[in-house]
Amino acid sequence: MVEAHGDGHSWLDPTLEVFQTLKLDLSTHMVSEEKRIFPLIRALEEEASDAFLDENGIDKMIREHDDSGVALNRLREPTNDYAPPESACPKFRSALKGLHDLEADIYQHVHKENNILFPRARTRA
Known about the structure:
- The protein is mainly α.
- Helices cover about 75% and strands about 0% of the residues.
- It is built from four helices and no strands.
- Helix 2 packs antiparallel against helix 3 (about 55-75) and helix 3 packs antiparallel against helix 4.
- The termini are far apart.
- About 10% of the residues are buried.
């Protein structure tokens, strides 16, 4: 995308960099949730005798959620809220729609964890 349209849209290269960083951060974040946080929460739900809540881990997840929000804003601003330029080809339009959908998915993920899962886990601890 950058190679094909970068000359006419200088914002594409830095946007790609933000996206790549966000992708890496999310991958690391999700592994941490799956391997550390969710098993602890599951143990609390099952009332396992050795269950404990990793408050620092949850706080770290919330900070990472906040960082993702910052990155999403850094994607939204230069893309004019993911609006394709009039001259955009179908792939270009699809890429911007994909970013829009990614943002919606991330915000839904963050809402469910920050406002439902983590507070519930804290009441069980």
